[in-house]
Amino acid sequence: MTSIAKPPVRHPGLKKNALGLTTRDYEGAMSTLCAGCGHDSVTAALIQAFWELDVPPHRAAKMSGIGCSSKTTAYFMKQSHGFNSVHGRMPSVASGANGANRDLVYIGVSGDGDSLSIGLGQMCHAIRRNVNMLYVLENNGVYGLTKGQFSASSDVGSTSKRGEANMQPPIDPVLLALTLGATFVARGFSGDKPQLVPIIKAGLRHSGFAMLDVISPCVSFNDHEGSTKSYKYTREHEVEIADVDFVPLRKEITVPEGAEGQVSVTMHDGSVVRFRKTGEDYDPTSRENAYEHVRACQKRGEVATGLLFIDEHGEDMHALNKTVAQPLSELPYEALCPGSDALAKLMEDYR
Amino acid sequence: MHDTRLNDFSFKIATVNGTGSASANNLLMQSIFRMGIPVSGKNIFPSNIQGLPTWYEIRVSKDGYTARPSEIDLVVALNNETYAKDVATVRPGGYLLYDSSWPLDADLVRDDITILGVPFGKMCVEAFEKDRDRTLLRNIAYVGALAALLEIDMDVIHEALTEKFSKKKALLDSNFRAIRLGYDYARAHYECPLPFRLARMQENANSVLMDGNTASALGAVYAGATVGAWYPITPATSLMEAFKEFCEKFRVDKATGERKFCIIQAEDELSAAGIVIGACWAGARAFTSTAGPGISLMQEFIGLAYYTETPAVFFDVQRAGPSTGMPTRTQQGDLLSIAYASHGDTKHIMLFPANPEECFYAAARAFDLAERFQTPVFVVSDLDIGMNDWMCKRLQWDDSYRPDRGKLLGAAELDKIGKFSRYLDVDGDGIAARTLPGLNAKGAFFTRGSGHDKYGAYTEEAPAYQDVLDRIARKIAGAASAVPGPQLHAQDGAEIGIVSLGGCHAAVLEALDRLREQGVAVDYMRIRGFPFDQPVTDFLNAHETIFVVEQNRDAQLRSLLAIETGMPRDRMTPVLDYGGLPLTARVVIDAVTAHAHKPAGAAV
Q1: ipTM (interface predicted TM)
Q2: Which residue from A59, A96, A344 is facing B275, i.e. has the nearest CB?
Q3: Average pLDDT over residues B53-59
């Protein structure tokens, strides 16, 4: 049951954000996912990120499709509006909602089945449209809710719990998003919250479509030997390209300055994302570079994580459409109806 | 033909698609219209850009009949491919106008009609130098010949042409020259005018020539719709294109270029439906325009909107199915697939405009109904209404109109109530209050297509689940009295009842007049909305003999009537016309006279 309320008991010493809210205020209903599910860790990271960004919960809209991942929108920010729509079609619902009210903070939560199989087309076109939203793809390489079928992100050779091997090549949402022109592409691991929270914050602040693929192991159907999306496999094969720190403009910069090889990216709203490169030179503003890096990691059997690509100069759906600044849903009717005189005049064109 | 028939005849032009005849046909329509004479046109075109045969039927009717004509008095045959077929469609005693640049095959001559040759091709080759001009102007020259034969006012033609080519003087000159060639030739070689011809009237001061898609788009503008999502599909494409055009005219800030609308051309119809639902959920008035194949693709989303009680407006401009069917032919084949669209128990509000004027008002009303009942609403027209130019009353707008947004709680109202529960029916009308995301933390709710109780919480409990489902059924039942009721045309002593809807209306009205002249009195009920209200049942019960006239193979309207009113199917005789062309009065007259048991005259 996704509507089990959490006990309202609060620790008096909980820290408050600029809105005077604690992280408890950003929680949702009790999760009904399996104990140890990677998705619950992503949910925790989302709560942390929204809290740290001081987003008023009712100004966020949580969009999802169908599947274990899509259920998680009920597990954070119960004071936000949520829309659990149909399988694979969240991107269109989010596009429409954003079309109507551009002022809300849109977060879409999806999974590998929802995004890479039934909803592949929708996801791709939301990227092309550059809808201003954070799109979190909780990627476990398996269909959990229907009990263990391969998904489109299952790696070749990975085995199901029953021992069958997947022979079809996987779709990598990161490479796909890079190819489609996404202006923000990142990958995280549900087991690495310190890395995930700043990426989520950066993605929420990004103006445009932010793709965040999160490797999120399924403890029931895909956390065994032979799975390439298990906790063990991911921990052993994750290659973090950059430590990300997200620094909102209005907060003091607390990250130590001048770290070796540091790259700063100024976000659309003036806030700054910092990358500390680990080892090799990495330029997150080069799409080609990101593509090569992810491919190279793949060849070595590694998973590239971190903020892989960012372009803060892309125009989102409304910029491309030249939509008025005020949300369309808030325009008074008087501003929309041309009136009877205009109609009478128009009729002359049809004679 | 010895008598002269004024302003009461039909003619048909057969040409090749993509050769310029479309503008010539529009010019003919416009000129006749501007002579104050009621006129309507049916474009019978192929699913093709260039090369396939196309026809345009123009009906001149002093009495104002707008249905497709039952017979053709004059055929302009300019397409060799279809010549034999076109010759055959001239009524006995009628006329054929052909291009006599080439000799006429003796096999194609009919001795019961008058054949008039005008060497359009030859004249244009001699008069114009460029190949392109020679081809295109041949297809404007026939306007001149028709002007001579039918007495279309050449000054009116010139005026219309001048407006069309106001910025292209050279085109105006060459076009009018070609028209003049046809005119002069016909005058020099034939006795003009023909026994049926035009004479100025004063009927059109309050009318316009408009297609239904344009009217629907205008209705959406006037209703305050701001988000449009679509995927191109014949015959619905021109609806969203018209919406875009009107928005660019009326909703762009002149100083900043900022737009008070957002039109999204989606990757498919599924996405278009999702965008509409998302936009309505977030508080905009949003819609999509589509045809049958789109409705098929949107089924799952339609069920989501129904169950989550999200407003959404769908324009379905029906075309001939099933499958791809005949994309450029008309039909009423989507009635059943819309009425109960999507899996599970659903029922949807439909509006059935019968002409462009009604499209305008139905469009505006659809947004009110969608918000009031928090459910998808379908404006169901067809290709004939949507794409053909109809003569209809000038559209008017009441400036006191304000959108009916239904039970929509604002931030202040939310503050006043104790607790907001999305699906709680407070006042017993089956409609629960909704609110919009972003207004207020108190109004936050989780919209889900999965089982939910009246508080909006997930449930798998039978009573809680059924409670919501039953309330939605009550809500939709309540919509029966809010949709436009049936329009009744009663005649004294009539025992026969005809039921029809939408695009059939014009032909049925005409048939009623002809039947009355034959002494057959018929009552007529035109369905204008779904779900049906009590008057629909009453009409059926009041008539021993009932004909249901519709344009599909399976008598879908009859099925709906049977399902919803309990009237046995075999008490209603179907009159079906589903070949893809607009209905003619003849089909209705023949069906009624064949089935009418009473001798003619007895019913008067």
Answers
A1: 0.95
A2: A96
A3: 96
